[in-house]
Amino acid sequence: MILNAPIRSHEAAGGQLATANNSINSAFSSVFNAEQNGGDVSALVEKLNIAVSLIQRAVAENATDPNAATADLSNATTIAQMVSVNSNSVSTSGSMAHQLHLYESLGTVAATLGIAGLAYLMGDRVYRRLWLRVYRNHVVKKSDE
Questions:
Q1: Residue ranges per domain, the chain?
Q2: What is the pTM of this model?
């Protein structure tokens, strides 16, 4: 998905490029799943971009410096594997945050319904008692006097 150009080299074999590309694609899938679960994947995306740039640099420098290309491919593979591992914890934390938000919302709805139910059932009684307390010293006079 990232790079499919065959690598022509003396040292950096095409197998290393394929391994790095597969690691990047796997990491991308893991990051995508973590984002779908609500995780904050910005740090993972930055590291994934670094790994992609290492692969691109390895392809560019392969003809002139195969040893550096091999090191870059190795580093890109390592970074991609670390992103895949870290994306599992990001996915879990995002999923837990989503569930917590859901439970908070359900608690708010339940409290609102409870208060509304009590107001409906007890509203008359509370209103009358409150009215009597406020106007207990009020004397009603006839209007024709």
A1: 14-132
A2: 0.65
